[in-house]
Amino acid sequence: MVREIRGPLEKLSSCAVCGSKAQREVFNGPDEFLQRRGMKIKIRYVLCGGCSLVYANPRMTDEELSRVYDAEYWKTDAAYEKVGGSWRLKPPFVEDRLRVAAERLHLLETRGILRRFKKGSSALEVGSSAGFLLSTLKRAGWKVQGVEPTPLANFAKRVGVPTKQAFFDESVLRGRTYNLIGLMHVFEHLKDPVKFLRSLRGSMAKGGLLWLELPDLACPRPIDLSHPHLYFYSANSITTTLAKAGFKVKHLETYNSRNGAFQVLHVFAEIGKPGKLKKDGAKEVKAILDDAWTLHRRKQNIGALVKTYKNARLASLENK
User: Fold this and answer.
1) Is the peptide bond before 58 cis (omega within 30 degrees of 0)?
2) What three-state secondary structure class fits 112?
3) How far is CA 300 from the centre of its chain?
């Protein structure tokens, strides 16, 4: 039985980044990820006419978002299991995330980010999961700190990665500064991105860098359109968002995952004034999202064929 989302959805009259009321619908479709888990909701994305930000409108309330993230994301990710009287991270999950962490460290090395800082510099990751990236940085000589709201924070502590189990705000790590602050696939879930960025400024050391990894609007994964992402960013709109919070982009690139399954934006920014900003076109954005949705639907529709093949039986493969 499909259960409706509790209470009304939150409708937005203006953009959270630039305040523009101009918006144009660029996508409207069911959230199949939540529907398969008993929750019925449609996702509608609009393009801001002021800064090109693509955002969900309407969107779930804080209460619903919290419940979805807590109850769905880690359970369905098959991250941990009970063995005897205790919990452990599943080995395939650990191996996969450590490979991702190694890939991210390689990017820092090859783009000259690590050379920018002296040995023993400090790194903070917001939304640090079980500390996979931070443990990799720690082995490379960095001082590390994580902030993670889910129970995965406890696994990070077990492997020697200091982690606060909390949502990040200015009070969580008051008085401490870091040379590198990273958010890996977290930024697109923040309800007020500019306010959050401004709250990070006090945690950045002089000459420090902010590092964002997030889905690239120019090449969204089909599954991204069936998850409760609040925003989709392009190279243009993430630059504008950072500028509103007083950050200047130093390096930005699109990056293909190790298995080629998806494309992400890697953005490195420092405190400062940006240069000339650009905007995206509505037709191009709509075409991208429609194409991703078409691929998503094709993947969802293979169920009947899978069942047909499973039921196929042959007495022999030899010609009679």
Assistant:
1) yes
2) coil
3) 22
Rounded distance, CA 274 to CA 186, Å?
23
Running DSSP on this structure, what letter comes out for residue 82?
A: E
Q: What is the mean pLDDT of the chain?
A: 86
Question: Residue 167 has what pLDDT?
Answer: 87
Tens-place pLDDT, residues 11-21: 999 999 999 99
Q: Which of 42, 51, 46 is nearest to 13 (CA)?
A: 46
d(CA 234, CA 171): 31
Query: Residues 308, 310, 315, 320: is their CA dihedral positive or negative?
Result: positive
How far is 196 from 187, CA to CA, in rounded Å?
9
Q: Which long-range contacts (CB under 8 A, 24 or more apart) does 244-248 make?
A: 244/17, 244/18, 244/194, 244/197, 245/193, 245/194, 245/197, 245/198, 245/201, 246/197, 246/198, 246/201, 246/271, 246/272, 246/273, 247/197, 247/210, 247/271, 247/272, 247/274, 248/272, 248/273, 248/274, 248/275
Instruction: Name the token pair of 28.
Output: 């409207």
Sign of CA dihedral 76, 146, 110, 266: positive
Give the other-Cβ count within 10 Å of 123's Cβ.
25
* pLDDT less than 70: residues of the chain: 1-8, 33-39, 66-78, 257-262, 319-320
Cβ burial, residue 43 (10 Å; 0-12/13-18/19+):
buried
Could you tell me the two tokens for 301?
């529709």
- Identity (one letter) of the amino acid at 115? R
Backbone φ and ψ of 154, nearest 5° = -70, -35
Rounded Cα–Cα distance for residues 82 and 79 (Å): 11
